[in-house]
Amino acid sequence: MVRSLTLGLIAICAAVQPAWAEELRVESETASESLLSDIQREIRDSGAADTLFEARRQARNAARKSENYLNSIGYFAPEISYTVDAGPPYIGRVSIEPGPLFTLAEIGLDTGADPLPDQAQTALQSVRTLASGDVAKPESIYAEEAALIAALKAVGYADATAQDRVVIGDREAGTLDMTYRIMPGPRIRLGQVIYPSDARTRRDYLTRLIPYVTNEIYTPEKLADLNRRLNATRNYRFVSVQLAAEARQQLPSGDEVRDVVVQLEERARYTLTSGTSYSTTEGPGLAASLTRRNATRRGDTLTGGMTLAELERSFSVDWRIPNITGFDRSLVLSSELGREETDAFDREAVTVSGTFEVRQSDHLTYALGASSEFTREEDAFEQRDQQILSTSLGVRLDYADDPLDATSGWRVDARGEPGVVIGDREAQFFSLNGQISAYQPLDQNKRIVAAARVRSGFVFGAALSDLPVSRRFFAGGGGSARGFEYQSVGPEDADGTPTGGRGLLEMSGEMRWRRDGPLGFVAFLDGTTVSADQGVEFGDLRYSAGLGVRYDTLVGPIRLDLATPIDPDQGDDPIQVYVSIGQAF
Length: 585
Hints:
Number of domains: 4
CATH superfamily of the largest domain: membrane protein fhac: a member of the omp85/tpsb transporter family
CATH class of the largest domain: Mainly Beta
Radius of gyration: 36 Å
CATH topology of the largest domain: Porin
Shape: extended
Distance between the termini: 73 Å
Strand order of the largest sheet: 13-14-15-16-17-18-19-20-21-22-23-24-25-26-27-28
CATH architecture of the largest domain: Beta Barrel
Strand content: over 45%
Number of strands: 28
């Protein structure tokens, strides 16, 4: 009983702060109120002490923290002491006399006995930010020293390092004379690129990726660019690009030639992917693809794809040959065998095409293409066999922050296609379509995002009945206006069969809200119209609205949308359901 009572009293005493406990005090006769306030903030976690031992420990720690803080802002000769009242109460007192605020007087730079070339001297001077009279803050000094090292590396001195600075202080004057000691080492020129002996990719292809010529002066950006280019091939799961430790050659000028050593770990040669989709308008769908990497040892990819859906069945083969005439210039050869059976038409087609893609920058890509399509189709007008020969020019300007789930930025896609049609119907046409998407976060954490999309398209030159169905515009369904039946929006014949059109306008707006974790929600409004000619009117837009759920995965968000037409026609279902991967746009 006595033991239990004793333990209980100890617990109570530990849980209740004594009435005599008081906060640590910082005192000074010369420091300004603002400086004392700043110091108090630095030691604010000291709290109150309820024993003499605790008060001494807190006062000692507070004195140390105060000295460190004063040193960090330029007070290098403070006088700091601490005492503790005998108590109770046990009050720790830290007495501070900060001394002079030191400023820089002479600032020197020692780069060794051998003078540096003018280019290196200019690079060093361009990053000098401190001047005589500036407060001698260590943070500013460290930053300038790091900038000096980076400046030398940027003009070829890969081994540039900093040695201990020479600092002479004058307490009476409150000044520091300081000299940086930067050892540049030799200037480096880039030699051969050494790849692993077991690398499968052909050396002549890898050579195309090198962003410099042999014996160019080293810069960190050149090695980083080579690293980025190797990663961009998507053939490797690991890439390392570094200078060799030893020089290959010493030049009379004093420069060293050093090789570049590349380490590579290749990805699996084969990748199998699959995906499913479902909507009440288009039914279930299954897509699968098998990719063979580096089939010809030139970084190429050979992909066979298959789509099995209620309305569509297709098989395709794509051969991508990257960097064919230079970096980021690729040739894509494609073929496809497909069949579609919709309310608007039945179509069988064989298509072969070639596209030359140029990635001009991180944001700009354009593509030149040519295709030949053999098609047999039956629509509201007739059944016919045709061949379509066309060329195309496409441009993408992309400033969005993510390809599948953008939260900020914008992107623009535009494509023009002139073509001729021969066979049972003959015609010439020019198709032009484009899309703008924009994403605006409404809070700092990007949990609430407003997204908008506008797409329009026009076909000139051919009558609607002469135009192949693959070159007409149809609207309605998951990729167009959610809430409407697939391809149901637009002109119809006397029997109510959609005919498609030569003019298209689509508009979508979404408000996206992401909770903590993988779950998110969407409210959306879609509008679309299709016209038989090129004249589309805003007044003809048909609208739908709905709600959706998003669930984030490694491959993008899984999308579930429920939509309803705002102005339904007779026969329109009240609710349509869509399940897919990725945002709607």
